Amino acid sequence: MDFPPYFIDHIAGGRLIIGVIACIHVLINHPLAVGAYPILTWMEWWAHKNNRPDIDQLAYKVTFVVFIVTTTVGALTGVGIWVSTSVFAPFAIGSLLRVFFWGWFAEWLVFITEVSLIMWWFLSWKSAKTDAQKKKHIKIGLALSIMSWFTMALIVAVLGFMMKPGEWSQTRAFIDAMVNPLYLPQLGFRTFFALMTGAVFVWFCSFYFTKKQPAVRSWLVYRLSHFTLIGMLLTLLFGLWYWQNVPDVMKANSSVALLSQEFMGWYDKFSVLLGWTLVSFLLIAVGGLSFANLIPRWALLIPSFMGIWLLGHFERAREFMRKPWVIGEYMYSNGVLKDELAFLQSEGILKHATYVAHREATPENQIQAGQDVFMIACSRCHSTTGMNGVLEKFATMYGHDKPWDDGAMTAFMANMHQTRTFMPPFPGNRSEAEALVAYLQDLRQTRQPLQGA
Ligand code: HEC
């Protein structure tokens, strides 16, 4: 309410844009930056110790890919997360910035160090020739691996906090926000997930780089099978710990599945996908331990594709479960604070919003005031007629070609949080609920898309 609402109709406000950018970022960060750098450093070390220039060459080629992708798409999508969240959910990112100020300050330093180390490591690879130079070069790789992990370790705190702020709810202390109850389980989960998918990604690259070197390929499959299997086991263990700490009300969102077609659909898909991904990882990893030379080259591509879908679905599930909160028990997805809710419901939300045309809903301005109410209360999740369109939702409840009853719709607003626990409570007073209904009835006739900011 304190920011001009930026809205792209049809794609439900813009959360999809945040989601797509963030998913691409995580898909690069976890397997490549956090997972692959330590594996590649280990490969360089092993090649040096055993005098195997062919393995060193392979590590260098994969590093080239990781270097290019992390410093371009990786870095850009990182900035993209800031841009998209600032535009579409400024209230949320603003609060997070306030709570995590020093965390993000540290993150900036760590990130700069990481990028410098990537440059240094990659660009000095070829010139490290003597034993002493090579040893120093391996140490740079090690430092880079640690810094890449640190950037993730800082950001994971923010993600855990958004779901379950823990002690912070009472103390409002930065340190309590950092070590929220989901922090360690999620950090362990993501660390080993990154290691596992990092190994899988190096397999993927070896499809291209070991065409004429079957012996190098089976060395790689065999060695990285260990990384994959250990990563997988620990991912599962930390995953269980993580799941145990997810608040029950949010877990219940997965049983709300019964009410939400869409949720049910992807919850099922997620389970199936999880199963198949584990099978594909296991087949190659266990096979790699005993008969690495028999694994066909193309098979090394499969786990990467499975991993991409799995990670995407995981992030989506995590984001959905947190609803109706953007910050657990503190701020709803539409930016309304839990502590302000009762006040806004009795006083009216228009009176306390900054970017609205009217401060009060009256019979004369109903439609325009209702549009503002929609923008504040619903637009972060619903479009008008497009994705998750609000008209379609009402049509499913009240019929596509029958008239909708104003009274029933107003009553729905008062109870919307009860019928659908993942929706926040309606944050306005009765005349605002009526104005919203008037706007929706009008929208049903005109089907006029809502303009941006
Ligand atoms: C936190 C995001 C969020 C906000 C904010 C939100 N909704 Fe929803 N709403 C959803 C989701 C998700 C669904 C379920 C979609 C599905 O089941 O396919 C839904 C479903 C609905 C439904 C169908 C309910 C049913 O029982 O079938 C209606 C009607 C609706 N919303 C109206 C609104 C109105 C009006 C507002 C604003 C006052 C609003 N919503 C705010 C996320 C939200």
From TrEMBL:
<protein>
    <submittedName>
        <fullName>Cytochrome c</fullName>
    </submittedName>
</protein>
<keyword id="KW-0472">Membrane</keyword>
<keyword id="KW-1133">Transmembrane helix</keyword>
<feature type="transmembrane region" description="Helical">
    <location>
        <begin position="183"/>
        <end position="209"/>
    </location>
</feature>
<keyword id="KW-0479">Metal-binding</keyword>
<feature type="transmembrane region" description="Helical">
    <location>
        <begin position="101"/>
        <end position="122"/>
    </location>
</feature>
<feature type="domain" description="Cytochrome c">
    <location>
        <begin position="365"/>
        <end position="444"/>
    </location>
</feature>
<feature type="transmembrane region" description="Helical">
    <location>
        <begin position="142"/>
        <end position="163"/>
    </location>
</feature>
<keyword id="KW-0812">Transmembrane</keyword>
<dbReference type="InterPro" id="IPR009056">
    <property type="entry name" value="Cyt_c-like_dom"/>
</dbReference>
<feature type="transmembrane region" description="Helical">
    <location>
        <begin position="298"/>
        <end position="314"/>
    </location>
</feature>
<dbReference type="GO" id="GO:0046872">
    <property type="term" value="F:metal ion binding"/>
</dbReference>
<feature type="transmembrane region" description="Helical">
    <location>
        <begin position="270"/>
        <end position="291"/>
    </location>
</feature>
<feature type="transmembrane region" description="Helical">
    <location>
        <begin position="221"/>
        <end position="243"/>
    </location>
</feature>
<feature type="transmembrane region" description="Helical">
    <location>
        <begin position="12"/>
        <end position="37"/>
    </location>
</feature>
<keyword id="KW-0349">Heme</keyword>
<dbReference type="GO" id="GO:0009055">
    <property type="term" value="F:electron transfer activity"/>
</dbReference>
<feature type="transmembrane region" description="Helical">
    <location>
        <begin position="58"/>
        <end position="81"/>
    </location>
</feature>
<dbReference type="GO" id="GO:0020037">
    <property type="term" value="F:heme binding"/>
</dbReference>
<keyword id="KW-0408">Iron</keyword>
<dbReference type="Pfam" id="PF13442">
    <property type="entry name" value="Cytochrome_CBB3"/>
</dbReference>
<dbReference type="InterPro" id="IPR036909">
    <property type="entry name" value="Cyt_c-like_dom_sf"/>
</dbReference>
